[in-house]
Specification:
The structure is a homopentamer of 326-residue chains. With 326 residues, chain A is an alpha+beta fold. Chain A has helices at residues 23-28, 46-56, 60-68, 124-132, 134-137, 141-175, 183-211, 223-286, 294-297, 301-322; strands spanning 2-9, 12-14, 36-42, 74-78, 81-92, 97-107, 111-117. In chain A, a hairpin with a 2-residue loop joins strand 4 and strand 5 (81-92). Chains A, B, C, D, E: GO terms for molecular function: cobalt ion binding; cobalt ion transmembrane transporter activity; magnesium ion binding; magnesium ion transmembrane transporter activity.
């Protein structure tokens, strides 16, 4: 599905609605140095993308990747065009989960084709923002590549913030005096953090190359901007790294705390039951049927036995309290 | 055992059935630039392979490796031919296990000899696919090497998918409310993941060299195709890496959950038993044989004792419930 | 907020009170080679900093970073000025916590602008110390950069010392014979150590470059001084690394010790209760109502039963003591 | 002790029995290009080796190393001779243990001196094999170095196989339904694996240099052979690495399984005891001495009480079974 | 405090007792090429060292380091002199602890100043040994630097041996059938091992540079000697690395073993108590007061009841034995 397509000249959008099957005509509009076409697609099938590939001369291996999605982030050169794969991330509040999509970019000398997979990571705001800042857009293709990368990585940062909050909640729950089993939640968070890492880590190398101005086809002057993106990527990586470490510690702490609490419970129940064991023995003794048991005939035999019971329990109670068992 | 042998010229198979002992004649068919022979063997013994080695000039150390199998994946140059070792993997549904085989390739200037060990990883589909795509096969030997690598690594991806599913199942079982001991299964999965890694990790360096076009004897133009294989390898590695981490977390989570459940059981049983301890004491008291025990002669002495028992248990019950012990 | 601003010439402060909005005039004072302006700001908003940026030609990306704070430590070149980000750390005794702030430095050919965030890490002492040591200050801008880095890293060392003390306390508590649950405290310390690392680790690369004299705009003669800072950074890193390892070991040790203690308690309680079980059985036996029970009619039947009880308990007691159960 | 000594010329052994103190004469036999002496010693003392050192011009630091043994594997150049240290490993079936020895080689332009420590790793088979393959021995010194390295590393492979089998046994024992404490055995295996690693890891670098033909004094043509040794080393490393990981997992699994089994036992015992608690209470109730207890006078009072006991136990039994507690 | 000072010429000590404040005169004695002064200080204060610094032209940053101690091992160049920091280690038998000191060396073109901190690591034996080996000392300054490094690293080896013994003891204690809590001892050993590592690890790089002859001011001919030191350093590192791993495994094993033992105890106590539960019930039954209880009037009712008790306990005993619970 074509989401949007336009020709840009001197940093301004040249109105030109492109229909499907019409890609060659669109590209032919490029006449002056600096003109370029930005074609945005959403989950195209093989047929749709093949036509685009024919018009723009895209490499079949890259096209296959762009249709299948589920690539690792990477930046590769095929003949005279670049192929950039980005994973997109967004946080779904409803189920506290991180979802992933993908953006594939074909960057040629006079065109950018963006292929988006998944619901998240809409590129429309990035495009509008660019179109409103003619000075930026005037830098041509590189500005578009930067804008897309920047918006994708900004979304990572938001996801990282959400995860930070989730970890804070887990932490609070683990160290709260109330009992709770957070192991499933910790596990899920670890999975999501792993998801984020899979998006972030492989992207660092492409961004480094872009920041260093080493990538042919991207203006070296755009370096500082990609360095900025790389920096944000580094922040996300650091945050997520730290969250993972803290989660592991939190998991260990909770295992230890639960075990301590449970053992405390058992000890208290056992000690409580032990308090009753001696009185029961005393009752048993005075329940014996010996013909010669002087206490049975004492006037205060019964109260004596009762106080013996209470006394023995009291002694045990004090002993248990002192031992920290009750 | 010879599986298949053929001469390829201009991307087409030249019909020529090679018998055993006839390798020299087969090779002599190579006349034009670009002609090459592809000889496929399955678990040959030393004698069989020695004849092949004599005809194609294979290095004795490589031949020994190819007969023994159990090599690590590697790409090595011996004089003017290359020796490539690949581990093959396939998933056996019947026992949820990953099995391994091996493919050894001798790549000379005008021949490819593939030696396959193990049941899996049939090369016939790859050969057929090549023969049907003359345009690809026209690239000569490099196309064959790529086709074999590609089909082997594609099989890794399938295995990784199966393992991913197995891990998902384990995960579900661990966090299910029912009790199950998944430690043996987690252990087995870890073993299988280690198996996959042993196939994948050492192959990365050869693929990188092939992708970079650094390997003499393989066309540098084939680089992007090997880069694609390398990319798939990277995906498998990433998946498998992640599975391992998740399995470790799942194992820890299950140890913790089982321990929590078992302690809960013990606490409930103990608390339940403790409920009966006080009534037993009361029964013991009124079973004592003191001559002076007023309650024994009360009209409602018996119901009084019974309600004392019920009452004390009820008090304990409420207390235990409040403490979260029952 | 402007904290301080001055022009320095030949290592001496030239009195010149700069008002807000007056930055251009301040900079225009720089006339001779070696003159420079040092402008110190505290948590400026975008407007304040924009004016400064206009006067000193700061790069918009760097300015944005300086306003937002929450950067990772880094040293970057934007056109003809440097941008250095440092995290500041201080230890708050009241709540045993490490707090973080940030210092951003813009270093141009004839100016230093320091932007400080957070309460800690006051730069006034560093400035005063410099102004009192004219010989040092005479080295110009590089001396200022060194002085700031040195004072920031010295603060890291103090924080590391405080953390070392905290870890010593935890250690003592873990191995003390009294019982205590230190898991929450260990967790908090790990968090704080992670905080320190996030300040220290990314700073090593900039310091290494400064120490090697590779950074254009900073005098290579200042190398040994930055090497000293780098060395201190290395010490902090080492201390903190070690603390982390020891904390993990301490955590494991405490989990193990608590579990041992709790199990000991349980065993003692159970063994204690078991001592009473046999006498209770004996009492039960002599409480049976058989018409033919010779012991019941013995003269010393009752003392016999009592001594049987005491004897059996004593035997058990000795057995339990020997088994190490009591 | 001199084990064997000989002069080799054109790949053949020249009969010449060397006595102690006679080394200079032996060396003087070397007349033609390609001739070389191979002197084999077993645990010589300082005096013996000093004489050898004098005759062959060995470096004092290397000689000291060769007498003391307990070196790490290494390959070093001293003036015009090489010094190679190899650790030897062998598996002692009797006590399932890996034992270690050491081989030190001095490699000069026309001599090889091998100094062996420990009982294992006899070099005689390697020497005989070489002498029987004149074509190999004709390559001179390099062939000897290769033969020794090859036989040492082959022994590593055998040890690795034995360890693999031991780990398989442990694994089976851990996951067997019978109970066993394998922690001591796992610990011992880990120690032995560490032993193997200490032999294997530091040897990789010398082998890599030999394989690359970078070592002056060793024929670059021998490269593929050393590459083969390096490959075997890599296999041993991989096997041992994997064994270590699996042992750690097996240890964790066994800790978890034993804990689960023990808790199961406790639960069953507790639940079993709990079954008897309620009948005991009932018996206690009907043992009370109230004058007004109607049940006591019922004709079927006794059977009624008994069936009450049986019934209550049965209800508990069913409940416990359903809860999975019995 | 000046420990010793001397001028060395042609490998011999020139008698010359240096008083404090007299350093300049001492240095002036250096007249011929190859002469050098070796001044040994022990824990000098700032004033003492300042005078030395003035006489020998030492860099203020290095002097500050040498007074403060608590540096990380390092080798640095300040103008025309070298500054080498070594950590010294020694094992105090009395409290099984590793203590640390520090040696700082200033190495100029014609002097060595050694500044020692801490009680251990006396340099006198090294100096005497050198003075007795004129041939070695004739190599000048480099021989002194080597001698100091060698004696320091030899002390590391002794410490490593002591730690190895301590770990062996812990290991034995962990796997002994007697019960012991070794967690505190394991923790302490880990701390000491960390101490050793902090001395060893950062020293490897300086030694490597010295061994490679890359350090200006140290004779490249001394390379093999420093390579020897580096080798010893590598051995210590390996030993200590291994000890750490084994300690972690030993800790895990002991946690598991203690837990197993404690659970065994609990099970035995519980099972023992359970043996008495059924006889107690039987006694309770025959203690009931029903008017119609035929057994009570049997002649052998009492023996019957007793044998019922014994029988039921015996059955339970056999069952528990078979289940492995007793």
């Amino acid at each position: 599905m074509i989401v949007d397509s336009a020709l840009y000249r001197h940093g301004a959008r040249v109105p030109d609605e492109c229909e499907a099957h019409d890609y060659a005509r669109l590209r032919a509009e490029v006449r002056e140095e600096g003109d370029f076409v930005w074609l945005g697609l959403h989950e195209p099938d093989m047929d749709e993308l093949s036509e685009v590939a024919a018009a723009f001369g895209l490499h079949p291996l890259a096209v296959e990747d762009a249709v299948n999605a589920h690539q690792r982030p990477k930046l590769e050169r095929y003949a005279d065009s670049l192929f950039l794969v980005l994973k997109t991330l967004w946080y779904v509040d409803a189920d506290d989960a991180v979802e992933t999509g993908e953006i594939n970019m074909f960057i040629g000398p006079d065109f950018v084709v963006t292929v988006r997979h998944g619901r998240g990571a809409d590129l429309r705001p990035a495009r509008q923002h660019l179109e409103e800042h003619r000075r930026v857009l005037d830098h041509g293709l590189s500005a578009v590549v930067y804008a897309v990368c920047d918006s994708v990585v900004d979304a990572y940062r938001e996801v990282a913030l959400e995860l930070e909050q989730d970890v804070d909640e887990v932490e609070e729950s683990v160290f709260a005096p109330t009992r709770s089993d957070d192991s499933a939640r910790i596990y899920t968070l670890k999975r999501e953090i792993a998801e984020v890492r899979r998006a972030v880590l492989p992207l660092r190398d492409p961004m480094r190359r872009l920041a260093a101005g080493e990538v042919e086809g991207i203006a070296p002057e755009a370096g500082p901007f990609f360095r900025d993106v790389l920096d944000h990527l580094g922040q996300v990586d650091e945050v997520v790294d730290n969250l993972e470490t803290m989660l592991s510690s939190a998991f260990d702490a909770q295992v230890s705390r639960i075990s301590v609490q449970q053992n405390d419970d058992m000890r208290k129940i056992s000690a409580g039951a032990a308090l009753v064991v001696v009185p029961t023995l005393i009752a048993g003794i005075y329940g014996m049927n010996f013909s010669q048991m002087p206490e049975l005939h004492w006037t205060f035999g019964y109260p004596f036995a009762l106080s013996l019971m209470v006394g023995s329990s009291a002694v045990l109670w004090i002993f248990f309290k002192r031992s920290g068992w009750l």
